[in-house]
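Long-time lurker. I teach an intro course on protein structure, and each term I like to show students one example going from raw sequence to a predicted 3D structure in C-alpha cell notation. This year I'd like something fresh instead of my usual example. Would anyone be willing to generate the C-alpha cells for the chain below so I can use it in lecture? Attribution to the forum is fine with me.
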Amino acid sequence: MSQEIYDHANHLERALRSLPEFKQVEAAKEAIAQNAEADALFSDFVAMQEKIQGLMQSGQTPSADEQAEIQELSQKIEGNTLLKAYFDAQQHLSVYITDIERIVFAPLKDLV
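-- Reply from a regular --
Happy to contribute to a lecture. Here you go:
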C-alpha cells in the first residue's frame, strides 16, 4: 500500500505536466529566455522576490526606497508582454495547484 501512494503521486506529476496550462507556462518561460530584455527583467524580479522574502523572514518590512523599487519593477513587468503572458499563464495553472493542495491535504486537516 505505501508504494501505491508514490505511484499516485508520480501519476499526478505526469498529469500536471500534460495540462495545457502547464505547457503555456513552459512556452511563456521559454519566450522570456529568448528575449534579453524580458530575461533581465525576470532576473530582477526573482532577485527582488528573494530580497523581500529574506526581509520578511527576519521580521523586517521593505523600506520606502525598496517599496518604490518594487513598484517600479512591477510597472516594467506589466509593460512587458512576455512577462505579463508568463504571469497570466501561471495564474491559470495555480487554480489546479490550489485545488490539488486542498484535496491532498484534506485528510491531514482531519487529524488536527
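Some talking points for your students: The helical segments are 2-18, 20-33, 36-57, 64-79, 81-109. The radius of gyration is 18 Å.
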